[in-house]
Amino acid sequence: MEIRGISKELQEIADNELNECAERIGEDLQHIRDWLRQQPHLCVRSDDQWFITFLRGCKWSLQRAKEKLDYFYAMRTLIPEFFQNRDPMDPALQSILELGFIFPLPKTQNSSGPRIIFVNYSVIDYDTINFHDLVKLFFMTLDLLMVEDDNFVISGQIYIARYADLPLSFYLKATPTIAKKFAMCWQFAYPLRVAGFIGTDTPVGMEKLFNAFVIPFLSKKLQDRIHMYSSQNHEKVYSHVPKAFFPEEFGGENGSCHVLAEQWKTKMESYREWFLEDAQYMSKEELRPGKPITYSEEFGMEGTFRKLILD
After folding, report:
1. pLDDT tens-digit profile of 136-161?
2. DSSP string covering 175-244, please?
3. Given this model, what pLDDT does residue 303 score?
4. Cβ-count burial of 309 within 10 angstroms (0-12 exposed, 13-18 middle, 19+ buried)?
5. Highest-pLDDT range among 145-159, 195-209, 289-303
6. Rounded to an integer, what distance in angstroms lies between the CA atom of residue 308 and that of residue 123?
7. Are the C-beta atoms of residues 112 and 14 closer than 8 Å to each other?
8. How many Å separate Cα 6 from the centre of its chain?
9. Superkingdom, according to UniProt (predicted)?
10. How many C-beta atoms surround the C-beta of residue 223 within 10 A?
């Protein structure tokens, strides 16, 4: 059993908020391994640290962690446009990485605070970009942070998304189907503790799109943690994340977008073999005991959407 050590402050959060118990770790990890041996449809990444991430993200509920693992890998089968061909050296992904579309910020509000992730939709040329590649890179970023970042896993994440000056081509490419798939994966497949999602410089069109095609598929608790602000209400953003924790280009003291984007590009590239290997991990629904999970049931117009209670 190889579990990465964490700081005293993060361990207190894991113990008090996530129900982690050192005496149970070995037994619970063995329970998950035994359960996986009984799931002929699942081919999953099976290192202990990966399982710990799911247990922490599910407040150490074995049942929820198993359900989350199952759905996480089912989505990799049902939505290959998000989860296959994830080579960071692919020219399409390279171009997005070079623009600095998404990267984590180095400073958290305290040593055990949530990781802040900056997502800048304003840097993208939507006339040339494949929108699926943006979503793909978004989830690649989450995957890498799940592997490396204990603040991200234990304390959660705060997303700062910048939507200034979005062109019409953005709305033509951000279709309801893509938005629905994104919302389903973000909420139901990933073992995340979303502490906040703050949209800045939000045009009216973006707010309407978000309210119509993302919000309805999120739990009430998660809806309450999403805040969209226009440029006229920009100061309200700082009630959620103090200005000092924004990048330097936006008046903060949390690193330069150019430098951070380059560093994150290098980090992504260093994980190339990890992402290439990851393509094999998925659900083979034809082998699932009982009723398979199908695309039409999950994403079709008549499909039902799960309403899980998430943190």
Report:
1. 999 999 999 999 999 999 999 999 99
2. -HHHHHHHHHIIIIIS---EEEEEEES--HHHHHHHHHHTGGGS-HHHHTTEEE--GGGGGGGGGTS-GG
3. 38
4. exposed
5. 145-159
6. 34
7. no
8. 21
9. Eukaryota
10. 14
d(CA 90, CA 27): 41
* Assigned token pair, 161: 């998304």
> Which are the contacts of 191, defined by CB distance < 8 A and separation ≥ 6?
53, 54, 56, 57, 58, 65, 68, 72, 146, 153
Side chain identity, residue 165: D
pLDDT at 305 over 80: no
Which helix (H) or strand (E) segment holds residue 96: the answer is: helix 91-99
- Amino acid sitting at position 76: R
User: At a CB cut-off of 8 Å and minimum separation 6, what does 229 contact?
Assistant: 198, 199, 200, 201, 202, 236, 237
Element (DSSP H or E) covering residue 267: helix 257-270
Mean predicted confidence (pLDDT) in 220-246: 91
Element (H or E) spanning 251, and its range?
Answer: none
Q: Are 87 and 276 in contact (CB under 8 A)?
A: yes
User: Domains in the chain and their CATH numbers?
Assistant: 8-82+280-291 (no CATH), 91-271 (3.40.525.10)
